[in-house]
Every structure is written in structure tokens, then in C-alpha cells.
Design brief:
The complex is a heterodimer of chains A (287) and B (186).
Chain A: E1 2-5, H1 9-13, H2 16-29, E2 32-35, H3 52-67, E3 72-74, H4 78-93, H5 95-107, E4 116-118, H6 120-128, H7 130-137, E5 145-148, H8 168-175, E6 179-180, H9 192-196, H10 200-215, E7 220-223, H11 226-234, H12 236-243, E8 251-253, H13 254-261
Parallel strand pairs in A: 1-2, 1-3, 3-4, 5-6, 5-7, 7-8
Helix pairs in contact in A: 2-13, 3-4, 3-5, 4-5
Chain B: H1 14-21, H2 37-41, H3 52-60, H4 64-69, H5 72-75, H6 81-85, H7 92-106, H8 114-129, H9 134-149, H10 151-159, H11 173-184
Helix pairs in contact in B: 8-9, 8-11
The chains are: A alpha/beta (287), B mainly alpha (186).
Bound molecules: iron/sulfur cluster (SF4) (3 copies).
């Protein structure tokens, strides 16, 4: 199993600890990740505010470079995931834009060849399978109340799972022994860039998400997106100051909690870098 | 605080409707049935000066000035809740993006929103380097006061190795620049 791996900008600056967990997990599962050589920014949520064409050429270059490695590209950030999918679909549906974008690629010696776009969750479900994960996991998460929070872009507007009530992570972590908390806000937005920039309108959404997780007595929130991880984790103190409510709860990226459940160490998964520390449940009668 | 006041038919600008209809995201706005599903599912509508339903209506009817001065497109978090539920298949979040581009081009965006400045500095950084350090861009967009307010948090993250201000670059940023110039003209 070989993937072209697209880390995206933030993985290298703000989430090297999350990247560690992705690489460690892939290795553990026997998946070969080859980082795309000389990749560029996907444009995030911002470039499309300036130019539609610019917001397509950036992901198109990434996809073109990826196609040299494999017909599958692994994308751990859901904003990148969305941009790559949007580019595939737009170039498919709009011949005039395709002509323009592909033309510009070709001028730089880059070929346009569509590839399949996978999130690490897709990789686990499609390539490894929940059964196998269950076997490997030995119910290490027994006793842990988990909120799988999906956010927006993993399932909307495109994804294999239900856009508003997805269950992929529920199934994976249930197979690992966790108790899945019924969490109706699982695809409600965290406020994205608005929240990350410290804006209180965005922050109020994150507050609601955390408050509900606490109210339902969750031990941990697990997320498929680095921006969700950031927003839900780093503003917990500010939320307490602003709304006077304790919302402290650990927030792990998908591959971090999965890695722990498969017996990998905290450090190799970057779990030691969390601001809100997380401990695995004590296992009865064993280490 | 409403920016609508009273609507006057004099404000209608037919060309604006045409402009939106020809954008990749706005091609279906005439099909909106004003059901309000978008507004009711939007997690941020209570902060908006025009709810998504109203915005779509006013945009497609050509009330350019109102729409391009609205905060709504800058508050929208692109969560796609409305998009997956809209019975008319309208890419509401995409229309927000088209409106952002027009408001930036016309200079009518609300000056106290942070996303316009963030978008510009983000684009500049991609244009220059091909890659982006988001923390750096965010600080540039927030100005000194905003930066100071984030400092305590920044320090905590930095101690954990979760914050870097290094400049990331592709091997040949000029290649990206030339491609951007060719397709986007700047
Ligand atoms: S939940 Fe927030 S960070 Fe996650 S995908 Fe949605 S907007 Fe983005
Ligand atoms: S959900 Fe769609 S059809 Fe209904 S008001 Fe919103 S844009 Fe119009
Ligand atoms: S995409 Fe924007 S307008 Fe639509 S529901 Fe989300 S925040 Fe509201």
C-alpha cells in the first residue's frame, strides 16, 4: 500500500506532533507514505477569497505531483482535503476552468492526472478494515468515554459518510473498546478561522461544543482535523474566563488516539505535546 | 444594528445579478425558493446582519451595495451545513466566497472584520513563498493589539514545539508565482 502523502503547511509548523502520530501509525499498519516532493500550500480557506483560479491551481499542482507517486494521496487536514476534492470536481465539471488550469500546469511540465483522495480515516477503514483494527487493539480503550467529533469538511460537502451524522470514527473506537458518547453536535462547526483568530463569535461555537461534551461526561474528544484540534483545545482557558464555565477536556487528533489504542507510545504519537494532558484508562488487572 | 434600513428599488443593479450568475459558485441562485433552511441550520446566523436566506435573495435581486457591505460573508465559516440541506442545490457557502472576492475588489468589505486582512496577507505569503506559516500570517493580519492579546497562548504553544515563525518555502517559489500570475493575473 503506497500513498503520496500531502502534509500541508500547518503540519510542519503548528502540528509536528500530530504528524509524528500519522507517520508512526502508518508504519505500524504497514502503510508506505511517501511525502510529495516540493509540495505547495493548498490555499486553505483564504485564497478562494482572492481568486477562484488561484484557489484551483494550487491544489492542482499538488495533485499532479502526487500522481507521480501513487493513484492515492493521503491528506490529514480536512481543509486541504476539501480543497483537493473541490479542485478535482471543479476541473471535471467546468471545462473552461480545466483548460486554463491544466494549461498552466503543462507549461511547467506538470501532467494532470486525477488521483483518489483519502483522509487517514478512509485509509483505516478501506485499507486496513475495522475487524483488523479490533484484533490489534485488544480493547485498550475500555472504560474510556469518547466523543468522536467530525467537524465540517470531512463529510461536507463531499465524503463517504453521512454529511450530518457520520459514524466512521464511532465504529473504529467502539471496536477498540471505547464507550461512544452520543453527541448530537458531532458535525456542528467549531468556527474555523473565525475561532482560530480569537473572534468571540467563533469562540462561542467552540464553547457550545465543549460544554456539551462535558455535560455528557466525556473523557476525551477525538477529531479528524488539525484546525478542530487547535480550536477545541487551546481556547479552553479563554472560554473559562469569558463564560465562567470549566470546559477542560483533552482533545486528540484521530491518529493519536488510534495509535494509543494500538499500543504505541505517548511520545511517538506526540501526545506529550498536548496542552490538556491525556491519560489512557487504567486497565484492570494488568499493566 | 441593521444595515438594511429600508430597501429602495433604486438600489437594484441588474448587472450585479448577471455577475453572480456567471461566477462558478453563483450559477443557481435564481432557483432559491426562500425556504429559509440555510438560515435555520446556520450556526452563525444570529451574528449576521443579513441571514443567509436574505443574503441570497438580495444578491440575486441585485442589491449590490447592501450585499457587498454586509458582514455575513465574512462571518460564514464555510461549514456547508446549509449547502448539504438546501433543496435547490445552491452552493451558499460558495456564493459567500464569490461575494467576498467582489467586496475585496470593490473595497466595500467591513473594515473591522479580520478575515479580509487575513485573506490578503495569506495570499501574499503564498504568492511569495509557495507555502504559508499560518501563525505568522495570522499575526500580520491582527496587528499589534491583536498580536499582544494572543501572546500568552503563543508562548504556551511555542514551549510545546507547536508554534514556529519560520518562513516555509517551496524549492522554487517563482514557479508558483508564475502559475498564479498566469491563471489569476496577479
Ligand atoms: S469543525 Fe471547524 S476546523 Fe473542523 S472542519 Fe469544521 S470549521 Fe473546520
Ligand atoms: S436553503 Fe437554499 S432554497 Fe432555501 S432559502 Fe436557503 S438558498 Fe434558498
Ligand atoms: S456555510 Fe456559512 S452560511 Fe452556510 S451554514 Fe455554514 S456558516 Fe452558515
Amino acid at each position: 500500500m503506497k500513498y503520496a502523502y500531502y502534509p500541508g503547511c500547518t503540519m510542519k509548523t503548528s502540528y509536528p506532533h500530530v504528524e509524528k502520530s500519522i507517520l508512526a501509525l502508518a508504519k505500524h499498519l504497514g502503510v508506505n507514505l511517501q511525502e510529495i516532493e516540493d509540495w505547495n500550500c493548498c490555499g486553505a480557506a483564504e485564497v478562494v477569497n482572492i481568486s477562484m483560479e488561484a484557489s484551483l491551481i494550487l491544489p492542482a499542482r499538488v495533485l499532479s505531483l502526487a500522481s507521480r507517486i501513487s493513484d492515492k494521496v493521503l491528506v490529514p487536514c480536512t481543509e486541504c482535503l476539501y480543497n483537493l476534492k473541490r479542485t478535482l470536481i471543479t476541473l471535471e465539471e467546468r471545462p473552461s476552468l480545466r483548460e486554463k488550469i491544466v494549461g498552466a500546469l503543462e507549461k511547467k511540465g506538470l501532467k494532470w492526472k486525477p488521483v483518489k483522495i483519502y483522509h487517514p480515516i478512509d485509509m483505516v477503514i478501506k485499507d486496513i478494515g475495522v475487524e483488523k483494527i479490533k484484533e490489534m487493539g485488544k480493547e485498550r480503550l475500555k472504560g474510556l468515554r469518547v466523543v468522536p467529533y467530525y467537524g465540517c469538511l470531512l463529510t461536507r460537502p463531499w465524503g463517504d459518510d453521512h454529511p450530518l451524522y457520520p459514524t466512521s470514527m464511532d465504529e473504529i473506537f467502539e471496536a477498540l473498546g471505547a464507550e461512544i458518547v452520543d453527541y448530537p453536535l458531532k458535525t456542528k462547526c467549531c468556527g474555523a478561522a473565525l475561532t482560530a483568530s480569537g473572534d468571540e463569535r467563533g469562540l462561542s461555537l467552540t464553547y457550545h461544543l465543549l460544554r456539551e461534551a462535558k455535560r455528557r461526561k466525556a473523557d476525551v474528544i477525538v477529531v479528524p482535523c488539525t484546525l478542530c484540534q487547535f480550536n477545541l483545545e487551546v481556547f479552553q482557558n479563554r472560554i473559562k474566563e469569558r463564560w465562567g464555565e470549566d470546559v477542560s477536556i483533552p482533545v486528540l487528533y484521530f491518529t493519536q488516539l488510534l495509535g494509543l489504542a494500538l499500543g504505541l507510545g505517548e511520545e511517538e504519537l506526540g501526545v506529550d505535546k498536548l496542552l490538556v494532558p491525556f491519560k489512557m484508562p487504567e486497565r484492570r488487572g494488568g499493566k | 444594528m441593521s444595515i438594511v434600513g429600508f430597501l429602495s428599488e433604486k438600489q437594484r443593479d441588474r448587472r450585479f445579478t448577471e455577475q453572480l450568475l456567471s461566477s462558478p459558485e453563483g450559477s443557481k441562485i435564481l432557483e432559491c425558493i426562500q425556504c429559509g433552511t440555510c438560515s435555520s441550520t446556520c450556526p452563525l446566523s444570529h451574528y449576521m446582519d443579513l441571514t443567509p436566506r436574505r443574503l441570497i435573495y438580495l444578491a440575486r435581486e441585485g442589491f449590490k451595495d447592501l450585499v457587498l457591505r454586509s458582514r455575513t460573508p465574512w462571518i460564514c465559516a464555510s461549514c456547508f451545513n446549509c449547502v448539504v440541506l438546501c433543496p435547490a442545490g445552491i452552493d451558499i457557502s460558495g456564493v459567500m466566497h464569490a461575494l467576498r472576492r467582489l467586496a475585496l475588489a470593490e473595497g466595500t468589505y467591513p473594515r473591522d472584520e479580520v478575515i479580509p486582512a487575513l485573506s490578503k496577507s495569506f495570499y501574499d505569503e503564498v504568492f511569495r513563498h509557495g507555502k504559508v506559516n499560518e501563525a505568522k500570517v495570522a499575526l500580520a493580519a491582527k496587528g499589534l493589539r491583536g498580536t499582544l492579546s494572543m501572546m500568552g497562548l503563543g508562548l504556551k504553544l511555542w514551549r510545546k514545539g507547536r508554534m514556529s515563525l519560520s518562513a516555509e518555502k517551496t524549492r522554487s517559489p517563482s514557479e508558483i508565482r508564475e502559475m498564479l500570475r498566469e491563471v489569476a493575473g496577479s
